[in-house]
Design goal:
Length: 97
């Protein structure tokens, strides 16, 4: 990845996210799949990235109510992601011979 594309990615600081679908999949009365709002926000699915909040909120008007716009640098989001990361990336113990 070149320096220009890295800078472009870093400039995209607003995320539109949505909760993951319920498993096993469950359809609601209107035919859409139900989502799992009990999952922590760090487990939600990235739907789109934006350069600013206004652009994200503009597109949010067309989405179901459970979609969220969140700043990638939001301390609460970053703290939750950091807390979840060590558990997922914990080194595996070396096999004993």
């Amino acid at each position: 990845m070149n320096k220009c594309s890295i800078a472009a990615v870093l400039a995209l600081t607003w995320l539109m996210i949505m909760p993951p679908p319920k498993m096993p999949p469950v359809k609601s009365a209107d035919g859409s799949y139900e989502v799992d709002l009990t999952k922590p926000i760090t487990k939600w699915i990235l739907f789109a990235t934006y350069r600013n909040e206004a652009a994200c909120r503009g597109d949010l008007k067309e989405k179901p109510s459970y979609f969220l716009c969140i700043d990638r640098n939001n301390p609460a989001f970053r703290a939750a992601a950091a807390a979840a990361a060590p558990a997922a990336q914990a080194p595996k113990p070396a096999p004993k011979n």
